[in-house]
């Protein structure tokens, strides 16, 4: 069952446009976009025990890169998406170079501080909406064509990028690079005794995760056709951590299952009552206590 899970999961997502209406397509696309960000966070959290409370900031920077470029006339995704990834990756590289000098709760707090700095910078961008956010004129074009305007094409674009991200993180986790990260998490002192400094490996992993989160931000800006400073808030970073833990930290597919599950459960409960968080909280507690999240339902073997 465990080996079939990726095919069942992505096969089901590929089949959604066959029966879904426009609202359901948008909801599933939102879940897949958050899944992409959660996979990138799950990679550094699972491989390196790096609990970043500023991951939403890099996602938001990717979204703002698309919004600002579009405001200045740059509408093509072939340009704006790489720029979004580069901007988010550079922010992750700069902040990671400082944050990774610390460990544990200090790392959590310093990533939270950098994330809030980015949040307040976004609020101060009065030329691009400030507190009110920035409304995009339309979705990005691809080679001059408005393909992303079609909900089904947008759905398959997000799905393709999600699959590519999962494969990338899986390959990195199984490579010598990923094994050094895992070894540093298990016993950093022994790794240093072997002559390996884990710092550059962690910094590269942090930068890659930031760039991938920037890609998710670029997609989210296109889905909502709106960019807001709230995208960069620590609340959103907390939601991403919840998605990773709910799906199963330490696995590649866990964050995908967690993100889709959280988005769909949130939508379902919010239709039942406006106080849906009272019901959502105990569900999260049960998932955390299960020590493996939703992915544990399909077996305990690690897949990444």
TrEMBL record:
Signal peptide segment: none
Any GO molecular function: branched-chain amino acid transmembrane transporter activity
**One Pfam short name:** BPD_transp_2
Q: Which CDD domains match?
A: TM_PBP1_LivM_like (cd06581)
Q: Does the keyword Ribonucleoprotein apply?
A: no
Compartment list:
Cell membrane
How is it placed in the membrane, per its record?
Multi-pass membrane protein
A GO cellular-component term linked to this record = plasma membrane
Keyword set, alphabetical order = Cell membrane, Membrane, Transmembrane, Transmembrane helix
- Its transmembrane ranges are 77-98, 105-125, 153-178, 199-220, 240-265, 277-298
Keyword Transmembrane helix set for record: yes
Q: Name the chain's protein.
A: Branched-chain amino acid ABC transporter permease
The protein's organism comes out as Xanthobacter dioxanivorans
């Amino acid at each position: 069952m465990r080996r079939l899970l990726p095919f069942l999961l992505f096969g089901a997502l590929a089949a959604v446009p066959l029966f879904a209406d426009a609202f359901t397509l948008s909801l599933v696309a939102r879940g897949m976009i958050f899944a992409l960000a959660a996979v990138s966070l799950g990679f550094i959290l699972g491989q390196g025990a790096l609990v970043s409370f500023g991951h939403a900031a890099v996602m938001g920077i990717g979204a703002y890169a698309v919004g600002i470029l579009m405001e200045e006339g740059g509408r093509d995704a072939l340009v704006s998406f790489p720029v979004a990834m580069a901007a988010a990756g550079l922010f992750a590289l700069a902040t990671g170079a400082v944050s990774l000098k610390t460990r544990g709760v200090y790392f959590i707090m310093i990533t939270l501080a950098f994330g809030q700095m980015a949040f307040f910078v976004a609020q101060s961008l009065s030329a691009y909406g400030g507190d009110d956010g920035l409304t995009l004129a339309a979705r990005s074009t691809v080679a001059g064509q408005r393909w992303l305007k079609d909900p089904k094409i947008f759905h398959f674009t997000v799905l393709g990028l999600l699959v590519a991200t999962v494969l990338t993180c899986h390959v990195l986790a199984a490579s010598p690079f990923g094994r050094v990260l895992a070894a540093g998490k298990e016993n950093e002192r022994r790794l240093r005794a072997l002559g390996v400094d884990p710092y550059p490996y962690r910094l590269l992993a942090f930068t890659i995760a930031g760039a991938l989160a920037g890609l998710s931000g670029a997609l989210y800006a296109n889905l909502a056709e709106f960019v807001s400073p709230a995208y960069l808030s620590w609340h959103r970073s907390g939601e991403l951590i919840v998605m990773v833990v709910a799906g199963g930290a330490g696995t590649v597919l866990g964050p995908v299952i967690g993100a889709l599950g959280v988005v769909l459960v949130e939508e379902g409960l919010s239709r039942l009552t406006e106080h849906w968080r009272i019901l959502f909280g105990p569900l999260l507690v049960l998932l955390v206590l299960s020590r493996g999240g939703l992915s544990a339902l399909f077996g305990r073997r690690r897949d990444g």
